[in-house]
Amino acid sequence: MTSEFQPPYVSLHQLDGALKTTGFALLGADSVAQWLPASTAELHALHEGWDNLPADAYLKDGGHYRSRRHSCFVVHGGQVQHSPHRAHWQPLEYNALHGGMQRWFEPMEPAVLAQPVWSRLLQRLGETASALRGEQPWFVEAHPFRIDTTDGIGRPTPEGAHRDGVDLVAVFMVGRHGIKGGESRVFEANGPGGQRFTLREPWSLLLLDDARVIHESTPIQPLEGDTLGWRDTLVVTCRSGGFQGD
Description:
The chain has 246 residues and is α+β, with helices and mostly antiparallel strands.
């Protein structure tokens, strides 16, 4: 049996320093709940939105394992502004599989965006991006994902190890059900160092300085036979200067 590497969590007061020093930081679920702040009930209510994610119609590998939505915001200081719906676009430089194409995903549901914890989550990520790069408006894209084992295997990052072309990437582990795999891997963009670990705690968080590190997640498989399993994540990116594709 392959040994599983445990996430090297940091405390809240170490968060900004870890991002600046190593290019990534991990918060455990208790720290995230304190950081937002959010109760277990609030986070559970937010997760309910993952049960109604439309299928991703753009997968170039022919798979049917990914469902998602996509919404955009501008975060500046304590203000969160919901932006008009737009396509998700990445250059081929950052996404060799799906880059260079406009992908129109269904927006996040109004009932999810109306929850107070959602605005607090975006405000905290804006604060973290500003601590990393300096105070400024942040152009934020939010992606609720469900990767499942419909095809027998699900690929959280079919494009492989990559950068996103932004300043800050936040990957919340929202939940896992009936799966094995899904290991997170973070590598130095310009060096030999790397880390691997498996996020299992609901609402634990991986933060990445996208200029300094490359990241990927390994495929998932059913834990038992053909029983359907899934991995729910929330990926939020913060970019300075504007949205990609503007």
